[in-house]
């Protein structure tokens, strides 16, 4: 049997709407995403953000613009706009001042706001970080491709030092990984295919650019899709270089994005065609991203390829792009 490793190749990095500020280097740890300063700059429908804020107030009770912003991962200016709107619509009212040296108003839902929140919860129960748009997500994926990395022989050797490999195999593996395309490992059971595939993830972590930005969620046609998965995605601190970029640009960092190690997602015999589609949570009323989307910018490992209930041909055809 065999293992298939998908390392997405997205070509040259492009960013049509300048959502990413980059320094001369191209790795994720030297760039940052500037935060939106207005509702319009989020790229999201105002109605979606209003619904999210009302659900957040209903769930958490009293909130200030700042505390609500920490939950929704939006800066003060955007939250001020949203609170002004829902206060004008009489969905919320001011209860008092927050306990802070800075005067912050505490908001609670009115009776009309609570009724509206229940209606919003019937449509979607998602409460948490505001999503990014699909186009922002596409731009980000294109800006941090695997084939933009250079993995030298020393890195390959270090990642596979626990394995017994011939020099020729090490060279072949290095060439395959640097291509940025899918890799097919084959051989008899027990010859180390899976362990070798796992080593590729170590190679990506070891080189510069071993981090990527992952959104908590994204919005597509008014629907929210949760992308960030605490099991798959390992958070890392924003390095000094990116922090320096923030200071120099005098901008805030868009915390709707999480800096993570390049992900490694595993799938085995349980993989079906349905697994590769969005999964809808009937109780929460929002979607979760499939495993290959969670693996974007990293490695998607299909273990024991050919032992799935679905035909191998159907799985391979799933990723064919005309």
Describe the structure.
The structure is a single chain. The chain is built from twelve helices and 15 strands. By secondary structure, it is of the alpha+beta class. The protein folds into two domains: 221 residues, no CATH class; 80 residues, Winged helix-like DNA-binding domain superfamily/Winged helix DNA-binding domain (Arc Repressor Mutant, subunit A, Orthogonal Bundle), CATH 1.10.10.10. The strands form five sheets. A five-stranded mixed β-sheet has the order 6-9-10-14-13. The protein has a four-stranded mixed β-sheet with strand order 7-1-15-12. Strand 4 and strand 5 form a beta hairpin. The relative contact order is 0.18.
Sheet-strand content, in percent, reads 15-25%
Distance between the termini: 28 Å
Mean pLDDT: 84
Tell me about the biggest sheet? 5 strands, mixed
Per-chain topology:
Blueprint: E1 2-6, E2 21-22, E3 31-32, H1 39-42, H2 46-60, H3 65-72, H4 76-88, E4 92-97, E5 105-109, H5 111-123, E6 132-133, H6 134-143, H7 153-159, H8 167-179, E7 183-186, H9 193-206, E8 211-215, E9 217-220, E10 223-226, H10 240-249, E11 257-261, E12 264-267, E13 279-281, E14 286-288, H11 291-294, E15 299-305, H12 312-318
Parallel strand pairs: 6-9, 10-14, 12-15
Antiparallel strand pairs: 1-7, 1-15, 2-3, 4-5, 8-11, 9-10, 13-14
